[in-house]
Amino acid sequence: MFKLSILYLLLLFLLAQKTFTEKPTTDQPRNVKNTKGLLYPRESETREVRSLDGLWSFVKSEIENPEQGFRELWYKQELHKIIATTTVPVPASYNDLFVETTMRDHIGTVWYERKFFVSRNWTVDKRVWLRFGSVHYSAIVWLNGKEIIRHEIGHLPFEVEATSFIKFGSENRVTIMCDNRLLVTTVPQGELVQQPSDKGNRTVQTYTFDFYNYAGIHRSVHLYTTPLIYIEDVKIITDLLTENRGIIKYEILIGGLEDESNDALLPDTDSLSLHLQLRNKSGDIVANEFCKTIPFSGAMLVPDIHPWWPYLMDPDYGYMYTLEIYLHAGGKDLLDVYRLKVGIRSLKWNNSTLMINGRSIYLRGLGKHEDSDFKGKGLDYALLTRDFNLLKWLGANAYRTSHYPYSEESMQMADEHGIMIIDECSSVNTDHFSAELLMNHKSSLEQLIHRDRNHVSVIMWSIANEPRTAKNQSEPYFREIVNYVKHLDNTRPITAAINVDITKDKLGQFLDIICFNRYNAWYHNAGQLDMITNVVIDEAYAWNKVYKKPIIMTEYGADTLEGLHFLPTYIWSEEYQAALFSKHFKAFDFLRLQDWFIGEFVWNFADFKTEQTFTRVGGNKKGVFTRSRQPKAAAYVLRQRYFALAYELDRCPMPHDVFQYVVSWRDISLGRRDEL
After folding, report:
1. Considering all CA atoms of the chain, what is the largest pairwise distance in Å, rounded to the nearest integer?
2. Which positions ≥6 away from 655 have C-beta within 8 Å?
3. SS3 for 332?
4. Residue 30: per-residue pLDDT
């Protein structure tokens, strides 16, 4: 009997241990691979979308106690009943919303909570989904006290079907744990170190990338419905067959077919069919397609095509159609409707050029950041609108999503405005190469490509920014990364922004297009403006000589303090930035004589926040615009160049205010007139 009691107690102990370890913690494996549900939430005849944006309850854990919320079960009941909370806006980074450095520089976990009602009407033949546009860096989500999803890698959306967790006709509570800690296995990388302080050792987050590690719920939170059987995913590939005929190849995935819990409500799979309609800008139907067999895939021919052109390459640039997808049962009953904006264009490349619709393109671009006062990296429609208007004011036709995926809303605007995108994942300054990092890096690219593959504006995938590709470990690592991306999408070229010396680089051999970053007369030979033009020319030639591939300079520039002026030019002044640009322009014009030099990208579009360091005066000041989006002197110089290039290459009319009238030189006695 005694032995049985001992065994019984031992069993209870083991069960208790199991129960304890199954409590959520930040150390448990996270769901890093979430590629379902990346269709953007859209209302239709069969779908409803509700935003949960607004003011949320908020609290942070102590830096040295990131597991506090788990141990105290903050997700089990309303946060304010357990701990004092405040309110914060969603979407927004939380760092700059407060006046304490402890909040701005917080390392570890923070918690969000919001209550909402769901109508009883949503219980009828519907699925309900909870979707997050981006939480940085990792997240755990509870609904009414029950964990429903985990996700890692910021700047990317994730969602979960919440139907079985929701209280219909009653109040619901969603709780989110957000963790901003970066490790050598995260994308991007970072390290946590212990450093001495006045209060003893404290945890410090270190990273090598040059932008602030903003954190929080950065993009919109949506609650939306679909039918029980629904359009789950859409993949399209477009091309031009002739000058006047286009084609849209499609693959459409239907969800809910294997849901045994709703068998009685689901139609026979064999009765399902798709009807696709394509509408032009005027709303006229220009093409139809029917598909009656699962898996649903096929091709839609489009007559009298209006191709998608980049900004200034055609008077009607950024032309978008609307693809309407109707899912039917039995040929009559309408189950689901989803609408997708579609641009139709061809994209080809070879060892010397990149072509859209059969025409070689020259990229007039900038690097950017999602960054603004107070909201940090939070989605801001006013800022988006201002940024795209400024891009067009400059005459730019492209930008790189440096150094992470930008919001879905910005991708939609790029499509509509004809701005080409080099779409970059979150891998920046990768220094330690490991199997776990490789898995996460591949996951980040899969999620990015799955999300953005239907965006006509995306013309390249960038797999990394300034990785340490002189290291031997980088070669097999990036060989696998490139092969993986080609497997995911072979319709776009693959690139990366390289900053190591060409004689040491081990990445360029795998890329379709070579991008390089170099800061001549800034980080190299600071103040020496006569050490730019020939150096840039020589390096571009060297990259092409080794790899025989198209070349782009994706970063060059100089920090510039707004309102600082020097004559003669001096570093940090507005005059110096403009003069440095001019020296690069001279190099680019020489390189443009070679077909293989296909673009130039200024760093940066606007000033942005960085970690505190003596090399940064209030952040990185390389923007041609201030952080509040007002122009520095170099913005006008860049505008003159980009519109002059558009006029030369695409015969785009020159805006009347690009060059201000100064004087008309006349010498009547000599009969000579030179106009500025």
Report:
1. 126
2. 643
3. coil
4. 45
Q: Which helix (H) or strand (E) holds 586?
A: helix 574-591
User: Out of 152, 159, 408, 466, which one is annotated catalytic?
Assistant: 466
Going by C-alpha positions, the residue among 205, 216, 188 that lies closest to residue 376 is 216
Mean pLDDT of 604-629: 95
Please write the tens of the pLDDT for every residue from 96-107.
Answer: 999 999 999 999
Token pair for 138: 């990792």
Provide mean pLDDT across the span 162-181. Answer: 97
- Please state whether the predicted TM-score (pTM) of the whole model is above 0.90: yes
In the chain, what are the domain boundaries? 23-180+215-227, 230-342, 348-650
Asked if residue 550 has a cis previous peptide bond (ω within 30° of 0), the answer is no
Residue 286: closest CA among 275, 297, 300: 300
Please state, in angstroms and as integers, the Cα–Cα distance from residue 469 to each residue in 88, 297, 367, 462, 523, following that order. Answer: 41, 40, 21, 15, 19
Calculate helix-pair angle for 574-591, 533-547, nearest 10 degrees. Answer: 40
Mean pLDDT (the chain) is: 92
The first and second tokens of residue 127, run together, are 């699925």
Identify the CA nearest to 652 among candidates 320, 396, 417.
396
CA distances from 97 to 69, 130, 380, 381, 523 (A): 22, 26, 15, 18, 33
What gap in Å lies between CA 425 and CA 156, rounded to an integer?
10
What's the CA gap between 458 and 455, in Å, rounded? 6
Residue 12: pLDDT over 90: no
Choose which CATH entry (2.130.10.10, 3.90.226.10, 2.60.40.10, 2.10.109.10) describes domain 230-342.
2.60.40.10
Per-residue pLDDT, 38: 82
Kindly state the tokens that stand for 37: 């549900």
> Confidence class of residue 123 from pLDDT cuts 50, 70 and 90?
confident
Q: Which of 310, 359, 389 is nearest to 606 (CA)?
A: 389
CA–CA distance, 380 with 377 (Å, rounded to integer): 9
Distance, in Å, from the CA atom of 241 to the CA atom of 651, rounded to the nearest integer, reads 25
CA-to-CA distance for 254 and 336, rounded, in angstroms?
A: 10
Q: Are 383 and 355 in contact (CB under 8 A)?
A: no
Q: What's the CATH superfamily of 23-180+215-227?
A: Galactose-binding domain-like (2.60.120.260)
Is 600 catalytic? The answer is: no
Pairing assessment for the beta strands 333-342 and 321-329 based on DSSP bridges: antiparallel
Of the candidates 567, 551, 470, the one whose C-alpha atom is nearest the C-alpha of residue 516 is 551
**Residue 672 in this model has a pLDDT that exceeds 70:** no
pLDDT, tens only, 328-360: 998 779 999 999 999 999 999 999 999 999 999
- Spatial separation of the C-alpha atoms in residues 640 and 633, rounded to whole Å: 12
Contact 213, 180 (CB under 8 A): yes
CATH topology of domain 348-650: TIM Barrel (3.20.20)
Residue 143 has pLDDT above 50, yes or no: yes
Hunting for tokens 């080409």 — which residue is that?
420
| β-strand pairing of 458-465 with 494-498 | parallel
